[in-house]
Amino acid sequence: MSRIVALALFVLVAALAAAPPAAARDTLRIGVGQFPSTLHPSIDSMLAKTYVHGMTLRPFTAFDHDWELTCMLCTELPSFENGRAERVERADGTTGVKVRYTIEPEARWGDGTPVTTADVLFAWRFGKHPESGVTSRETYTDIVDIEVHDAKSFTLELKDLEYRYNAINTFQPLPAHLEEEVFAEDPATYRNRTLYDTDPTRPGLALGPYRLAEVATGDYLVLERNPEWWGDPPHFERIVVEVVENTAALEANLLAGELDMIAGELGLPLDQALAFEDAHGEDYQVVYQPGLIYEHLEANLDNPIFADVRVRRALLHAVDREALSDQLFEGEQPVADTAVHPLDWVHVADVPTYPRDLERARALLAEAGWRPGPDGVRVNDAGERLSFEFSTTAGNRSRALVQQFLQAQWAEVGVEARIRNLPPRVLFAEELSRRQFSGMALFAWISAPESVPKTTLHSTMIPSEDNGWSGQNYTGYANPEMDRLIEAIEVELDRDKRAALWAELQRLYASELPALPLYFRANAHIWPTWLEGVRPTGHQDVSTLWVEDWRAAD
Amino acid sequence: MLAHLLRRGGEAVVAWLLVSLLVFTLVGLMPGDPLDLQLAADPDLTAEDVERLKALYGLDRPLLARYGTWLADAVQGDWGFSRLYARPVAAVMAEPMLNTLLLMGLSLVVGLAIAVPLAVAAARRPGGPLDVGVNLLAFAGFSLPSFWLALLMILLFAVNLGWLPAGGVHAVGDPGLASRLAHLVLPVATLSVLTTGTYLRFARGALLEVVGEDFMRTARAKGLGPLQALVRHALPNALLPLVTIVALQLGTLLSGALAVEVVFAYRGMGKLTYDAILANDYNLAMAALLAATALTLAANILADLVYVQLDPRVRYDD
Q1: Which distant-in-sequence residues (6+ apart) come within 8 Å of B42 by Cβ?
Q2: Which stretches of chain A drop beneath a pLDDT of 50?
Q3: What is the model's pLDDT at position A22?
Q4: Is B260 on the interface with A (CB under 8 A)?
Q5: Subunit contact B32:A219, Cβ cutoff 8 A
Q6: Cα end-to-end span (Å), chain A
Q7: What whole-number distance in Å separates Cα of residue B187 and Cα of residue A2?
Q8: Measured between alpha carbons, how far is B55 from B49 in angstroms, rounded to an integer?
């Protein structure tokens, strides 16, 4: 009897041991750390969804690898020069703009239905409906009117004339032939009934090179070639996006051969990727793409310590940010001088900089009235110590290391940073957005190329009870000159003049230090050696928007 | 007996309601609702957007009023809609619940199947080499961090040996039994190491308590061998504390094992509940936590019934 049991066990183990054969190169298996909560393109913004939609949908416009605005679903980017944009002077004194787009003539939904202006009109009606459930209605309410010329061309009239008048990256057409009826039935519950979530594999919901073939909620999504795709045919027959939230397990799945690559946008943290490259770099391509993720320090400027710009400058002089980047991130995350990324065309290099200079830091603190105290921490005339709370998102190992680095270097000039880390939801939803923090916080802003920092630096964007705690100017920075520059950039259409304004803004930023710049975070992309054509962008328009270029090397 | 069961059932319903109020209040009192988080993260979101969305999701109403609405709907079988997964709660929970029942049920069975015979073997010679070894095994079993053990299992059996899949519920596009079983081996093995340790400790302790009793000497005097005496007389008496532990463990059949589910990317109730709480997905969190509560309460009533079967001295008078 025991022999039979042993034999049965052996057969079972042998059967289980028969690992799945290596996938053929017509399938690409991508590991990501997050599953999209909804697959509706316009409800809730989430990176995981953006990543998948990069393969199944196409926006009208997007920023490309060179951070230039480009047409994806339209035939030509509208401009005043090509006659597709026209200034509108209204009777009430406001200035708007009309921009004319033409939809790609061959663009079709996955069921063969042409993408038309009906889809544009439906997307607009849906988006501006107060009960639609879209997170930000501004994209839709900023459109005053849509004039339809024919099935493939239309003109948007925008409320305000701003420099980015022709960028409609977040305006996604919706398949009116499928979704309009569902929406019309009851707009308030449409978000719970949309086909994108109730029947996500319906071909007519996709218009990109791939369409969803299977959705295992929380586990994986299978994408197959969209036979109705009008562009260059994609190389892979099938793409599987698998979710493994734990990054150690994600790495193990890659090593076990169950994944081909780990998406840089949603993959391993940099320190883990660096360790992975050390151990397995020969077997994979590991590419670091510094992007528009600006890690920085924000201090509550209502705190008298930080209200003095000399203290802010001293804090930056006290820190060796080059060494920080080298020691913790092997130099893969470039030091920032301002919030503007060096790859952004508006970036200027000639701004005040703060190399490590302990003497200068001590002198600035002394000028600000902080002299060495009995326990090594500086004090002012009132006997108050130069000591503050220093918070970041609890559980983020990289940030915890940065914190300790900064804390140690500040201590050298008599500054005490008391670390008090908080769960992200508490830090962002309570301490920062309600301005309850009294000291300093370390976190990141994610932005798009040439993104005007209105919500973070304009004085009207300081969160308060009066404005419903909206705005992200958590520091409370208020400077009329900064307000003027932000407002001027927004309406300046001339590229050269705008560049000059941007240069002024960066110099003011580097001089005033409303926030203390640290570095630009890099995403670590891990690909198999045989994969070609993937080009990380470093901004919000993810690499999958060009998935048809991805291919297996011969 | 019937009156006892009815009384215990009534108590369970009251306890369930109290737990539901407590859980709803605790989830509701967590700092920052989902829209506050979105406001902090999305630069395009305006105060008007937040007000509009709060009204849309009913988050602008007082907590108790929201609880009242939730309870009224729940007793009618409407568990609401999950914000996190954009689907009805019942649909979201169906598969993770099945996955967790399989994972936890198998771990429980495997744990008991290993622990009870080992405990009997150890109790034959208390203090002997086998007993010492079993004792060490028990301590090791429940002391090992599940997170670490799970990663170790993946590295050994999936990465180095390549024998078993590293994670997931089943292979992509293959939800068949063989694929599901293959994906269950490592998580069940990990959890079984932990449950075996726990059961082993309790079973061994309970057996050692009864081996010195008079009835055991009588059994031996009747001519039963040591093993027969242990199995026939000591084991039934030693099962009572084990039943209590197993009854408590039954609650985890629906609450899942968070660490193991996370590492093995196994879509079960532990991870689902954790995500729902973090994302303030009230409907999903409530349904998940209360399902586990209901099962725990039911398991306790079941344990009462099992006591009667195992121990003739136990009676519930009407």
Answers
A1: A45, A135, A136
A2: 1-23
A3: 46
A4: no
A5: no
A6: 54
A7: 26
A8: 10
